[in-house]
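Hey forum,

I'm writing up a methods section and want to include a predicted complex as supplementary material. The small molecule is acetyl coenzyme *A. I've pasted the protein sequence and the SMILES. Can someone with a working setup run it? I'll credit the forum in the acknowledgements.
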Amino acid sequence: MEFPFDVDALLGERVTAVDQHLQPPGRRGPGYTAAHRVDLQQQLMTIIDEMGKASAKAQNLPAPITSASRMQTNHHVLYILKDNEVKTAGKGAIIGFLKVGYKKLFLLDRHGAHNEVEPLCVLDFYIHESLQRHGYGKELFQCMLQRERVQPHQLAVDRPSEKLLCFLHKHYNLQGTIPQVNNFVIFEGFFADQHAPVRKLPPKRAEEEIKPYSLTDREFLKEEVEPPWPFNQSHSLTRSSSLGNSPVRTCLKPFLNEQELLRNLRLCPPHAAAHHLLNGEPGGPAAQRRRTRRSAVGQDGLVAQRSSYSRYGNPAPLPDGVAGGAERRAESSREPLRRLQDSEGRLDSTMITSQDTSHPAPLPQPSGTVCYSEGTSLPTEPALTDRTKDPGVRAAPESKPSGLGDPVDCLPPRPSNRWYDPAGVPWGKQPSWTVAGVSRDAQWIRYKQEYRNTRPW
Ligand SMILES: CC(=O)SCCNC(=O)CCNC(=O)[C@H](O)C(C)(C)COP(=O)(O)OP(=O)(O)OC[C@H]1O[C@@H](n2cnc3c(N)ncnc32)[C@H](O)[C@@H]1OP(=O)(O)O
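Reply by user p_vandermeer:
Happy to help. Structure tokens for the complex are below, copy them as they are.
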């Protein structure tokens, strides 16, 4: 692997060991200044980053597990093998690298006993594709063993590739592995000769699950399971990935604060079930029950407020920035009321029943929805406009959007033979509703509408 700077001068020795300080050990002339040192360190970081990427690519990893920044934050040692024989335009080249580091692990011995150990681990190993199977891997590995003063069977290997297993078998006769429940592989003889003190824990019970704290460098690469809504709205959450594996090594960002969660709630798209309502599609009884129940617990809260319970069926327009805002505005202006009804004209509402005597009694439906008695016609857009022509009725602004939490949104439908003021209140009457057997006024409904769906916990 070649670089636009003098790798040969930068690294000095054939095999260079680099730790978290990222100090290049290369030649330093008489005029060596702090600026030079920064330049050289930058070059070393470039080498580490590029090699890390190449290694990840060779192992089909989604992201590099070796980088300059990861080196700086871990007590690992990187052995870099350079090619100082074939000089590319006098600058040298990098052949490969081997990264090792001590890690505290719980490992099982042959008898199934837990052992708390801190062995040297092989974490990442890469030889450039064009130079593999030329003995460079062996040269580098051998150098590491000498400098670290360890025997091959004392090592733990972090998720070895097939190539590495073949390599270890061929050169060091490492074959018989001791099965582990984490991602590290150890070989026969590992427990026979340990430098680090081995602390034995009682053997595990058969039914007990083992949760070792084996900090593998590769844990952070695991795919994460999508969390349930609304926690999937933030990318700042990271979790430990799977049972039986070690904790995630990446830093855990703080949990969503309330403000952030509320913001996400407001911006989140409606649940798929709400599209039935938005599109006026018919749904079976089960689907309707699901819809209404979800609305009640708040999952589709915003949509429910905008559509299912809107008397005018004219939801507040969403801002353009909000996904689907423009489309939903267009749709809502075309069919403002269909979203209240299924194909048979039934209302999709189990939340609120009217006590206002002017409202017809709802007919119980097997589906759990509420059906209003025959003759009750849902107001249509022209009808609303006609009402405003009555001199006794104050004119309602036609395009007035019913805002979120507006009590008008949750009023039941009105019979067409009554006139209402723009707020939807019959003249001279203060409506009330029975919710869960208790009589509630518009103020209470408004409060509930405003606060119910934004706090799902
Ligand atoms: C913890 C970890 O780092 S796991 C990731 C290990 N890294 C990789 O898999 C990246 C891709 N592979 C490589 O970079 C290299 O092949 C290494 C580092 C595994 C070995 O380096 P090399 O320079 O090829 O090793 P070296 O030449 O000294 O030894 C060759 C032996 O390695 C093994 N080996 C190397 N390449 C392969 C391969 N493509 N398929 C199977 N075995 C291979 C064989 O045992 C081979 O002996 P052989 O040629 O007689 O079959």
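Some notes you might quote in the supplement: Residues 34-58 form the longest helix (25 residues). Residues 58-59, 122, 124-127, 132-138, 157-158, 160-161, 163-164, 166-167, 170 surround acetyl coenzyme *A (CB under 6 Å).
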